[in-house]
Each structure stands twice: as structure tokens, then as C-alpha cells.
């Protein structure tokens, strides 16, 4: 599913994340690590947001050789999402749905899943942290992704939304969608059968079942 080779991401601070070779099968993978270990750095590189040395390939599509085709199949929800204050969630959905070529009925279904119908027309500047997180999660499921990256998806959302998110992840897994998930919130761990757990430490990655 996902192959990472000769990966290096350097920062001026001296921090360096390095992965010589990593091959992840289809399914759901848990990414662990302390704050500053490089989880978000890795996620943003895989999502095509951060430049890096090396190569990342998803189902034989190279992010560097075919960046547009690659990004169409990778969706990402940040741990602490930020959007332009003057836009509404409906504005964001319209933009992302067009880029991801979302099916016509998908948007309304996801708005109901995340319970955002009552405020989707309001400006982002009025959103609470929980509303921002719901918006980010909704956008991550638009289109027909092959890989969805969820960075701390269970923080700041209520228990009902957590349950709906778990159910949605399971539904997408059955369709062949794969997931990379990071979390400090342990209660959701038993709900999934992880293909692997990756531990980030000191700029390196350790893979285990």
C-alpha cells in the first residue's frame, strides 16, 4: 500500500527524521511517539504538505513523479486544524469536494455523521475547538481516498462523535481504505485491529505488529 524509502526531513533546529525503508500493508496503522517525536512531520510529508528527501509511493503512485494523482488519494486531518476565519465549513467542503471529486450524496451523509448541519454555514471564526476538529475530520473523508491520515482524531470531540468516527473508520476499512492514526487517547485502541504499530523516537521509527 504505502512505501517509504530513503526518507529524510531536516529542520534548522537540528531535528532530523529519517526512515530508510518502510512498507505498510492495507489496513490501519497506529503511530505512537512523544510530542516532538516527528509524527506530524511524517504525516505532512505523506500528505504532500512538507518537502522531503527520498521517495513515498502509494499503490505504485509516486508523490514526486505524479503529485496530483497521488494527492487525490491521500486525505489528512491535522491534530490542531486551522482554516481561514472568513470561510464557512460549507465553503471548505465545496472546495475540497471539487478537488477530490466527491460523489454528490457524500457531503450530506458526512455532515450528518459529524453533526455539523446546524453550523456549517457559519464562519470558521465562530467555531469552537471541537467544531474545528469535526470540520477537519469531515474533510478527510471526502472523495475516494486510498489512505486517510488522522492526527489525534479523538481529541476535543464529544463521545457521540467519537463513536460515529469509529464506526465511519470501520466502514471505510471494509471498502479498502487504509488509515494512519496517531493518538494519546487510549480508549479507542481496542476498537481496531491494527496491522502495525510504529513508534517514533529520536528521529527514527520502530515498526512492530
UniProtKB/TrEMBL annotation:
<dbReference type="InterPro" id="IPR003439">
    <property type="entry name" value="ABC_transporter-like_ATP-bd"/>
</dbReference>
<dbReference type="GO" id="GO:0016887">
    <property type="term" value="F:ATP hydrolysis activity"/>
</dbReference>
<dbReference type="InterPro" id="IPR017871">
    <property type="entry name" value="ABC_transporter-like_CS"/>
</dbReference>
<dbReference type="Pfam" id="PF00005">
    <property type="entry name" value="ABC_tran"/>
</dbReference>
<dbReference type="InterPro" id="IPR003593">
    <property type="entry name" value="AAA+_ATPase"/>
</dbReference>
<dbReference type="InterPro" id="IPR027417">
    <property type="entry name" value="P-loop_NTPase"/>
</dbReference>
<keyword id="KW-0813">Transport</keyword>
<keyword id="KW-0547">Nucleotide-binding</keyword>
<dbReference type="GO" id="GO:0005524">
    <property type="term" value="F:ATP binding"/>
</dbReference>
<keyword id="KW-0067">ATP-binding</keyword>
<feature type="domain" description="ABC transporter">
    <location>
        <begin position="2"/>
        <end position="207"/>
    </location>
</feature>
<protein>
    <submittedName>
        <fullName>ABC transporter ATP-binding protein</fullName>
    </submittedName>
</protein>
<dbReference type="InterPro" id="IPR051782">
    <property type="entry name" value="ABC_Transporter_VariousFunc"/>
</dbReference>
Amino acid at each position: 500500500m504505502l512505501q517509504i524509502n530513503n526518507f529524510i526531513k531536516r529542520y534548522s533546529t537540528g531535528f532530523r527524521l529519517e526512515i530508510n525503508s518502510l512498507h505498510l500493508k492495507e489496513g490501519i496503522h497506529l503511530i505512537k511517539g512523544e510530542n516532538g517525536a516527528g509524527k506530524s512531520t511524517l504525516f505532512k510529508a505523506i500528505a504532500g504538505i512538507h518537502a522531503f528527501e527520498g521517495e513515498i509511493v502509494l499503490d505504485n503512485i509516486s508523490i514526486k513523479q505524479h503529485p496530483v494523482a497521488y494527492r487525490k488519494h491521500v486525505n489528512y486531518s491535522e491534530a490542531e486544524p486551522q482554516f481561514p476565519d472568513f470561510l464557512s465549513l460549507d465553503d471548505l467542503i465545496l472546495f475540497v469536494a471539487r478537488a477530490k471529486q466527491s460523489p454528490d450524496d457524500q457531503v450530506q451523509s458526512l455532515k450528518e455523521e459529524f453533526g455539523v448541519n446546524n453550523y456549517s454555514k457559519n464562519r470558521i471564526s465562530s467555531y469552537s475547538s471541537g467544531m474545528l476538529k469535526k470540520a477537519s475530520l469531515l474533510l478527510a473523508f471526502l472523495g475516494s481516498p486510498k489512505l486517510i491520515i488522522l492526527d489525534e482524531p479523538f481529541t476535543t470531540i464529544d463521545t457521540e462523535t467519537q463513536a460515529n468516527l469509529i464506526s465511519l473508520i470501520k466502514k471505510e476499512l471494509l471498502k479498502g481504505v487504509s488509515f494512519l492514526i496517531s493518538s494519546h487517547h487510549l480508549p479507542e485502541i481496542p476498537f481496531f485491529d491494527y496491522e502495525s504499530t510504529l513508534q517514533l523516537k529520536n528521529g527514527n521509527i520502530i515498526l512492530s505488529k
